[in-house]
Structures are given as C-alpha cells and as structure tokens.
C-alpha cells in the first residue's frame, strides 16, 4: 500500500485530517470531544505545536497545526494513539479507531493559511449539519470570534492579527471573511501532489526536496511527480502529429508518472492503444 510522503521541517504548517475506521464514529458524545481537545492541548505542549483552527465532526476531525520543531509524525502518533487508548478503555473495546494514516497537507502560511482555517470551520456548513459556523459548538470558530472562551489547545493571535490590531475590529472582520467563504469554491483544487498548497515558488521549493523519490513505489504516484507538467502542456503541440503524440504518451507515462488510463482519457483513445504503445516501447528498449 502506498504511504504518503511526509515533509517535515521547523515551522511547517499543515492541514491534518483523520477519519474513523469504516467511517464509524470517533466521538460518541461531548465528553469524548472534550477529551480529544485536552489530548491535543497536551500534544501541543509536549511537541511545541500551535493549533490555529480545529473542527470535530462525528466521524473525522480537521486541525490546522504549526510545528515549530518539525515533528508532525511524532505528535500525530501521540494525538491519535492516546485518544485511541482513552476511547477504547472507556467503551471496553480494542483495535483501531482511525482509518489508516492521517492525511496532512503542507500549507504556505503567508498565502493560504487563512483560507485553510476558513475551510476547516465551514466543514459543518458544507455537510449541512448547521446553517452557520457559529452554530457548531465543536470548532474553533466560536472562540475565534469571541463568543466563548478558547480551549487551551487553540491559538487565535495569528488569525486575528491578519484583520487588525484591535481585537474587537479584527473579530468582526474575521467573521465577515468566514461568511464570504460559504459561497466560494473549494481551495483543494490547488493542492499539488496531494500534499502541498502554496504559490509556485513554494511548490517548487519542495518539488526539489522530492526529487529522487520517483522510483519509490510506496509513495503515491502524484507525490513522486509533484511538479510535473499538465497533460495540456505535454500535448499542446504533439497531439496532431502521430509520431510526436506517441512520443508525448511515452513521456507522460514513463517520464512523469501519469497512468495509462489518464493519458487515454485525455487523448480520447482506448486504453489498449496506450498500453500497446508502452509495451512496444519497453520491448524495443530490451532489444537494445
């Protein structure tokens, strides 16, 4: 099974989500949610984390975490592991609570952190559980806008600091920013390789970090070829000329890790055509 590559460094910031095994509940009541936030607080203290936003749903959670010491994996083992122990003991059960590994997307703080935090607290609205984020008790939104006291696991200074130096005005502007996001399109279409969200320079910085991982099959294909050119770019001038098109197909599959089905669908060809072309190419290589 492919295992996502983790990019860790001092000051890295992530959107992390973890889902219940077989989509089952990970919180059965409010006491469970409070227990999770308490464990998150202790994890923050132990691993020097900053939590900018969170949202606890019924069968999954979202957190936005800044790791000052570049230790996301260690902290997540603590967070999910301890909560699993507490949950299992309370409900006299054994085994996993969470489905596989957590998902973490590396976020560029300056350009995308506000959008990601907004996405997180709007999760219950998108799920139609509530009409407004203020109605959902188990997210960081109510504390950030000043309706209730923050849980110790949460830090609101950076978010509010982006909207003004006076906290009252900043909270109002932040609330307006969140409301505006209800009708905006999702930000996740901009994610590169399933793990990085940022501007082109930010993505390029970490695409260099990923060089050399192309042949490690345990890492998902999209992450191994994180900064690859689009199929539009690859076939811009090659699609009309059959020879150049075939060269483009080989380049897309063998050089940039596109699946044969992806290329076939893009070009409007049958999968067998792409498969035969790649097989013929491998055969010719073996003869040389």
Summarize this structure as a short list of keywords or feature phrases:
288 residues, alpha+beta, Alpha-Beta Plaits, five-stranded mixed β-sheet, 5 strands, 47% helix, 11% strand
The Rg value, from CA coordinates, equals 22 Å
How would you classify the quaternary structure?
single chain
Separation, N- and C-terminal Cα atoms: 33 Å
Could you state the CATH homologous superfamily of the largest domain? Transposase IS200-like
Please indicate the count of domains: 2
Structural class: alpha+beta
Strand adjacency order, main sheet: 2-3-1-4-5
Number of helical segments with 4 or more residues:
13
Kindly state the percentage of residues in helix. 40-55%
The tally of strands reads: 5
- For the report, how would you describe the main beta sheet? 5 strands, mixed
- The shape, in one word, is globular
Q: What is the class of the largest domain in the CATH system?
A: Alpha Beta
* Second-tier CATH architecture of the largest domain: 2-Layer Sandwich
Give the CATH topology of the largest domain.
Alpha-Beta Plaits
Poorly predicted runs are 213-219
- SSE series: EHEEHEHHHHHEHHHHHH
Strand content: 5-15%
- Overall pLDDT metric: 85
């Amino acid at each position: 099974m492919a295992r996502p590559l983790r990019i860790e460094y001092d000051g890295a910031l992530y959107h992390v989500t973890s889902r219940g095994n077989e989509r089952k509940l990970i919180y059965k009541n409010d006491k469970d949610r409070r227990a999770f936030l308490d464990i998150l607080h202790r994890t923050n203290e132990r691993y020097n984390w900053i939590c900018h936003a969170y949202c606890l749903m019924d069968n999954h959670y979202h957190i936005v975490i800044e790791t000052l010491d570049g230790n996301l994996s260690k902290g997540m083992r603590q967070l999910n592991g301890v909560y699993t122990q507490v949950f299992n003991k309370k409900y006299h059960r054994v085994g996993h609570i969470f489905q596989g590994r957590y998902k973490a997307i590396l976020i560029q703080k300056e350009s995308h952190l506000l959008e990601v935090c907004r996405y997180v607290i709007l999760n219950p609205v998108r799920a139609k559980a509530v009409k407004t984020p203020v109605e959902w008790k188990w997210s960081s939104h109510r504390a950030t806008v000043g309706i209730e006291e923050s849980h110790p696991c949460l830090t609101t200074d950076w978010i509010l600091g982006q909207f003004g130096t006076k906290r009252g005005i900043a909270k109002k502007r932040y609330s307006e920013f969140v409301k505006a996001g209800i009708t905006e399109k999702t930000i996740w279409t901009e994610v590169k390789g399933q793990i990085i969200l940022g501007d082109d320079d930010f993505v390029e910085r970490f695409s260099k970090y990923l060089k050399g991982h192309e042949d490690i099959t345990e890492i998902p294909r999209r992450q191994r070829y994180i900064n690859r050119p689009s199929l539009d770019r690859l076939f811009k001038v090659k699609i009309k000329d059959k020879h150049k098109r075939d060269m483009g197909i080989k380049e897309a599959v063998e050089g940039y890790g596109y699946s044969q089905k992806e290329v076939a669908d893009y070009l409007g060809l049958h999968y067998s055509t792409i498969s035969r072309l790649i097989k013929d190419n491998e055969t010719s290589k073996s003869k040389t």
